[in-house]
Structure formats: structure tokens, C-alpha cells
Amino acid sequence: MNYLEFKEIRKKLKMNQADIAKSIGVGTRAVQYWEKGERKIPETTAFFMSNLLKNEHSSGNQNGKPVVFSEMKIMHVPLVNQYAYAGYLVGFNDDEYTESLPTIPFADDVEHRGSYVCFEVKGDSMDNGSYESYLEGDILLCRNVRHDFWKSKLHYNKWDFVIVHKEKGILVKRIVNHDVENGNITLHSLNEYYSDFVINLEDVSQLFNIVSTRRKNNRR
């Protein structure tokens, strides 16, 4: 959803910026940023806006047929926050443990395929002050990369990664080289204070592409 669509829905609902902000649980300033196109509108906000419009039309003179502005699909994805890192390293293969994790909704207009987990960013190793940064507290929607794909060149020019390492724990990194023959990957931090280092995929339990990032509205 872009800023023009957002503003159009708000006007159709006959709500001002303060009213719509209260309805979707954000500050008025966030709405102002979205309508100027200065901030990306989160997936869940787009979903809630579409539902507000649908409910408005279904309760009005529309012959009982709801009008849907955008068909959004919701995934309820397990969330591994900073404090669950250690537990996840032990329990990620345990269905009972995975089911005990809290979930977080992610909305999109396409149906995602594959296995997904959300990770909360810990530390500042991927923060260089640019738009590419992953800040501490960001929520990352991640898609599992199947083990059979590890044997060929990873698409590291397209994605950043979350690596579940058997000894080093959960790492949010950029892969800058993949030595397929020896199974080594070189991990890079956006923050220049952290040096690149090499790990072997035999020491990795899981590998995830970072698909989407959710950031609090009061962050830069």
C-alpha cells in the first residue's frame, strides 16, 4: 500500500489523521509521515486499513457485499526475541518448543511459501547509520533456506541472512562470499567496528533469508 492509497482510504472513512491514528494504534505523526510518503507503511497497517474500509462498506448501503481495497493475507509467525536466543538454539527442532513461542502477524498481498520465523535484532553490528541498517529491536521476518540449497551458491547478493550457528549463536549478517567447494561463508557486519569472519556451514544449524523488517514508529 502506498501513501496515496492510504490517504484515499482515510478520506473514504471520513476520518482525520488523529482519528485514523487512534483506530490503528499509532501516533498522529506516523500517519503524517505515511501520507507524505516519507515512511514505508507497515504490512499490518495496510491490512488494518483495508479491513476498516471493508467493515465500513459492509455496514452501509452496499447490498451486504464488503468492499475490499486490497486482498491481504496474514501469517502468524513464531517470534524469537532477544531473550529467547539461547532457548531457540536448543529447542528449534522441538515442535513443542516452537509452538510455545509467541507469534507476530505479518500481512502481505501475496501468499508466502516456505517455513518462516521472526527474530528480534540484538546488538549494533548491523547498524551503520544507513537505510540498510538493522537496528536493535527490529523484528525480522525470515524464510528458512533448505539444507539442499546450501550446496550451491547462495543468493547472497539478493538477501541478508540470519544464521543459527552451533557455537556463536544467532547471527544477523551479510554474506559476502560463499566457497561452495569447502562449505565456507564469509560474514560481514555493516558496522565498521566489527571485522569479517569465516564460518563453515557444517557448524550451522539453520540459515534464513531476511524477507522483511518491522521497525517501531519512534525509531529513526
Question: Could you name the key traits of this structure?
Answer:
single chain; 25% helix; alpha+beta; 220 residues; 6 helices
Description:
With 220 residues, the chain is an alpha+beta fold. It has helices at 3-12, 17-24, 28-36, 43-58, 85-91, 95-100; strands at 73-80, 103-108, 116-120, 139-144, 161-165, 169-179, 184-188, 197-200, 204-214. It has a 9-stranded mixed sheet with strand order 2-1-3-4-9-5-6-7-8. The two termini are 21 Å apart.
SSE blueprint:
Elements: H1 3-12, H2 17-24, H3 28-36, H4 43-58, E1 73-80, H5 85-91, H6 95-100, E2 103-108, E3 116-120, E4 139-144, E5 161-165, E6 169-179, E7 184-188, E8 197-200, E9 204-214
Helix pairs in contact: 1-4, 2-3
